[in-house]
């Protein structure tokens, strides 16, 4: 699979298979193509050559509504739409139940601060003061409430402190939403929790393997910056690109 942007080849010859029900962390230096790969995986963008499959079906062949039901997203800077916080978390659900929304918020560690808002879940989104990390947790809650066969987190944990990130990662890969997960990761501890890591380097797949195996390579360790420490590996339908 190849993808170009602005006349430049950003992804070149990428060939990845994510077994159903597993978590793939995507790591690489800035500009390696991580976010574009995440966009292609859920068809927010199309490749210039090659194709992306979900459970063996090309994404181009899936109807728009079916694709949106199958794929959930969380972003570094989520756009929170809806009149209230509850509506923002339940966006896209045909019949969002309060129980489902609150359970998703608890998984994203958002329930406590939402309850402290002036009107709790009924607080207007525009009137809900929140930090960058709290916005990310609301975006994660929306993704968890959505469910779906494929969950894509594009740098969606970047504004969280390390303790909160670890709690959410444990919930996500343990008793959290089921399905396949594609996780753009910038911290070594997050990559360590995935079933496998795809290391992107200048738009190509440099290697795929377990984090603890790749950690033996100095160039891989350098992706996470000075002082990065390895973390114990955690627990983790199929997607192909």
From TrEMBL:
ABC transporter domain ranges (all copies): 3-227
Origin: domain of life: Bacteria
Chaperone in keyword set: no
Keywords for this protein: ATP-binding, Nucleotide-binding
PROSITE patterns attached to this UniProt entry: ABC_TRANSPORTER_2
InterPro entries in alphabetical order: AAA+_ATPase, ABC_transporter-like_ATP-bd, P-loop_NTPase, Type_1_exporter
Listed GO MF terms: ABC-type oligopeptide transporter activity; ATP binding; ATP hydrolysis activity
PANTHER family, sorted: ATP-BINDING CASSETTE SUB-FAMILY B MEMBER 10, MITOCHONDRIAL, ATP-DEPENDENT PERMEASE MDL1, MITOCHONDRIAL
Name listed for the protein in its UniProt record: Putative Lipid A export ATP-binding/permease protein MsbA
